């Protein structure tokens, strides 16, 4: 869908006079590229952070300085892997970790789908040793974070670069595992609408399922990883959105009166890098909200 479409659609839905969304829970779910370091084809991830990893300066790899490992440089800095000095505000979004934990418990009840073809492709990652051990296992539910980029990328260099960005921009607390094209845009709209009391940002869950690996196994090129090999993760990723997601939805409905109607209060900071919802961000330049 990409960021612009996601933001425009979410804005239209929330501003529609047909809906009262002040007590609504939002399950933001979609398929994703998955890091073989953390999860696998068909794997389900619930995220605390969404990081807009491509919101940086960029050099073409053929023109970047010889001592650069990648062409991306955080705003306000002059080399890769540095903390930004200039912020737009959408770089990192943090959601309710207490709600995430509850959603994780529900999703973990699901019997996730798999297929023999995906299992066969996972076996190629055994050549990567312990680093890629998670890739060789069957689907499971994990807690890790989403990287948002309009660019659909493939390969070890970019994946490791954005893995580093996720860690740096969250002060070492974020764990990159899933790639997305929408999450920060969707979350930014929800946050702005929460400022005006139209939604409750503490009622947001971010979930992704692995449809393909973000980088190839040993012996496969980044090009082939994206365009040639059949990873066979798409169908099970789609199916597992439903299988894990419906457990979350049913859990909320069954315990609505006792727990979810009043909401689960966050114990962590929630919102953007600028403290737009109040509170003190545990990442970024600190609150700019009086």
Automatic annotation (TrEMBL):
<protein>
    <submittedName>
        <fullName>Purine nucleoside permease</fullName>
    </submittedName>
</protein>
<dbReference type="GO" id="GO:0005783">
    <property type="term" value="C:endoplasmic reticulum"/>
</dbReference>
<dbReference type="Pfam" id="PF06516">
    <property type="entry name" value="NUP"/>
</dbReference>
<dbReference type="GO" id="GO:0055085">
    <property type="term" value="P:transmembrane transport"/>
</dbReference>
<dbReference type="InterPro" id="IPR009486">
    <property type="entry name" value="Pur_nuclsid_perm"/>
</dbReference>
């Amino acid at each position: 869908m990409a960021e612009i479409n996601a933001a425009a659609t979410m804005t239209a839905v929330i501003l529609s006079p047909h809906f009262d969304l002040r007590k609504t829970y939002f399950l933001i779910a979609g398929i994703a590229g998955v890091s073989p370091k953390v999860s696998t084809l068909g794997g389900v991830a619930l995220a605390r952070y969404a990081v807009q990893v491509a919101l940086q300066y960029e050099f073409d790899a053929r023109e970047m300085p010889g001592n650069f490992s990648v062409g991306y440089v955080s705003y306000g800095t002059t080399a890769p892997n540095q903390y930004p000095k200039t912020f737009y505000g959408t770089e990192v979004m943090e959601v309710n970790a207490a709600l995430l934990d509850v959603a994780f418990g529900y999703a973990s009840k699901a019997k996730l789908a798999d297929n023999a073809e995906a299992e066969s492709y996972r076996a190629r990652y055994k050549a990567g040793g312990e680093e890629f051990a998670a890739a060789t296992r069957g689907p499971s539910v994990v807690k890790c974070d989403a990287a948002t980029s309009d660019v659909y990328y493939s390969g070890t260099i970019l994946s490791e670069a954005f893995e580093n960005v996720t860690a740096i921009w969250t002060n070492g607390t974020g764990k990159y595992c899933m790639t997305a094209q929408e999450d920060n845009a969707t979350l930014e709209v929800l946050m702005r609408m929460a400022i005006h009391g139209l939604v409750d940002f503490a009622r947001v869950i971010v979930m992704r399922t692995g449809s393909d690996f973000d980088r190839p196994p040993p012996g496969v090129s980044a090009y082939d990883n994206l365009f040639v090999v059949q990873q066979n993760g798409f169908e099970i990723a789609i199916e597992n959105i439903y299988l894990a997601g419906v457990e979350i939805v049913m859990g909320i409905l069954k315990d609505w009166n006792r727990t979810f109607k009043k909401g689960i209060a966050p114990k962590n900071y929630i919102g953007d890098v600028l403290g737009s919802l109040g509170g003190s961000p545990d990442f970024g330049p600190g609150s700019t909200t009086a």
